[in-house]
Structure formats: structure tokens, C-alpha cells
């Protein structure tokens, strides 16, 4: 790999990124041991309760009531997926910082209205199918070995399949949003929750837009990831009561996007900006998440990729990332951006 404008070779930059992410995952895993154990025990208690009575996730509050400070059970697989997508985002932003400070080359832009050829996603899927099997095998020996495999795999993926990773990560986030909305409104639409979530996300989106106007007015963020999450969180709500209709909606939206590109109501995708997210295409993945919730997918608690073995999602750091996704999303760039900037100055 050739040296870039900063004088650091791409391979050195990738090693720094991979080691940084490995250290971050290992540190959070170690710091969250007690929290993950508590949620794991809460889930096991919940499973024992529903084996003897009809108890819904979210309504569960009686089991272990005498125990103090024991958390309510959560949907393990949903937290895991949310954390997995967040790990992609954090790594993506770390490498974006390296690209911005000329320590890695920028990838060529793509037409965000039409996306990438299907074959690109096939390569991406095969790559991660093999990678996750290796991570799983590593986890059976030690979770830290798993992270030592996972972080470099994601780093190299973002280097070689930049746009595939970005688009796939966003789709995963949107599916999690759909499952989360279906969970919240499982017994009927809770309008207070709708207003609360929309207010939080809308306020955060407004802050991001204002800050971008102040610091990067030539590339201000008019409709980024948080804006898209805010809008789609509202549009998804009616479908939470109609999971089969949501599945049809997913198929229709994806078919339309593949055939015609962006819909007429889509936000402009070609304006200069640091971040823009097509809402219509991603709404389809939210609707898919609603349907997946109706099939019980978020309640998966374990995975078995090798016969005779089993791993609890709550034993991984990804569930911790998922539970604290908003905080990590807001904080990580405040740490990485100045750190990479200082590194670029040292190598100027």
C-alpha cells in the first residue's frame, strides 16, 4: 500500500484504526461485565416466567421483584443488532477522519439514489459470513480474541468495500428502528412515546444542522442519519399494528427503488453535505423490522454457529453498545476527531 499525503502508508493507518477499535471493544467489554451479567440473568428469569405463564416482553415485572437493582429484561438480539450497526458506524467515522486528514484515500462517490450492483452485496455478505464464523470460533476461546478478529475485519471491509459497508450499516439501523417501534407499540400505539421519541430525535437533528451550519457551512447537514431516523420513526408507527402490510410495504419500496431510484418526494441527494440519508429507501427496512418483530426475531437470546456450542448475545459487548447506542453515537466523534487531527499534525 502506497504512502498517502501525510506520509503514513495506508497499511499503517489501517493498523492504527484496527488496534483502536479492538482496544475500544475490549475496554467496553471489561467495563460492562456486571451490567451484561445482570441483563443476562434478567432474561433467563424472564424465559423461566414465560414457560409457566403468558408474559410479554416489556410487561414482565414480577419475576425477581424482591431483587434490588435488577434491570428489566430487554430484547437481546435487538440490542445486539443495534450494537453491531453502531460498531460499524464508529469504525466508519474513525476511518472517515483518517480520510479527511489525508491519511487514507477517499473512496469514489456513488449514486445514492440507485445504490450499488447486487453483486457487490453478494461479495459483502460472503465476506462477513466467513468473518462472523471466525469471530464466533474466537469467542468460544475468549471474547477478547473475538474482538481482535472482528475489529480488523470491519476495518479492512471499510477500506475495500466502503459504500457497501455504509449502506448495509444504515439498513441494519433502520431494521432495528422498526423492531424497536414494534416493541414499544406492541399493545397499541402509545402516542406519548411517539411524541417523546420524535422530540428527542428532532431536537438532536436540529442541533446537528445548526452546528454544521456554523462549522462547515459549505457542507451543512440538511438531512442526515438522525433526521432520517426521526422521520422514519414517525412513518413506521401505523405499520406496527399491521406487520403483514409492513412486509408488503418493504417489498414495494425496495422494488420501486431498484426499478426507478429515488422517489419524487425524496430529499435532494446531490447537494454538497457531510451526511445525507434517503428516507424513502430506508423506510422499507424499518417496515421489514416491524415484520421481523412479529416473527419473534428480537427475542432470540443465543446463537449456535458450530454444532454443540452456544453463545448468549448478552455475553458480547455488542449488547452494551446497543443499550447505550445514542450516547456512544454522540460521544465517539468528540474523542476520535481531535485524536486523529493531532495525529495528522504529528505526521504533517
From TrEMBL:
The Heparan-alpha-glucosaminide N-acetyltransferase catalytic domain, residue ranges: 160-333
Superkingdom field: Eukaryota
Keyword Membrane: yes
Keywords in alphabetical order: Membrane, Transmembrane, Transmembrane helix
Sequence intervals crossing the membrane: 12-31, 80-98, 118-137, 144-161, 167-185, 197-215, 326-346
Pfam families: HGSNAT_cat
Protein name per its UniProtKB record: Heparan-alpha-glucosaminide N-acetyltransferase catalytic domain-containing protein
